[in-house]
What we know:
By secondary structure, the protein is an alpha/beta fold. The protein has one domain: 3-Layer(aba) Sandwich (Rossmann fold). It is built from seven helices and seven strands; from the N terminus they run ααβαβαββαβααββ. It has helices spanning 3-17, 23-34, 52-57, 71-79, 119-129, 148-159, 170-179; strands at 42-46, 63-68, 87-91, 104-110, 130-140, 182-188, 196-202. A hairpin with a 7-residue loop joins β6 and β7. α1 (3-17) packs parallel to α4 and α5 (119-129) runs parallel beside α7.
Amino acid sequence: MTNQARVWDRFAKKYVASPIDDVAAYEHKLELTRKYLRPDMKVLEFGCGSGNTARLHAPHVASYTAMDISAKMIAHGRAVGPVPENMSFKVADFATAKVTPEAYDMILALSVLHVLPDPGAVVRKVAGALKPGGFFVSSTVPVGEFGLLSLIAPVGGALGVIPKVSRITTDDIRTMMTDAGLTIVEDWRAKPKSALFLIAQKSV
């Protein structure tokens, strides 16, 4: 088990119990995502937490894999209730996991990229794992634009007090997508100081 997995295991119970900050924004992101879902799609979500979003999207696709680095997060997800037949949970770190090239029609990373040590490398891996024409859905906190938080959070992450964070900005996030060969088709924020929600498409 990696140090980051231990940190997330420690935070799992509190994370799962936390209410959604902005329900309207969350529901809007669900709606934007569903514009691109099809019944024949094979979908992967990494950093799925307890899998609440996965459970909502799974009925709209052929298969849905919900992956998280934290075994305790996944345990919470399985304990919620019966798992849809076309959905599976998996404990793994997408950054290091073996992923078949061009295997997925859509990959989701919601509230994930800013807690990765090398988000750019992960976005490139996502691009490689998408089928031609596939979509990458992400919601990312631009920590580098949050003043004092951008200075304090990396220290807390280094000490293991909180999960590690990357001081990325909205420009950084958009550039990661285009550098990986993805075209941004949805670009939305609920308000200026909120997560950046993107849907980016791999060329056909």
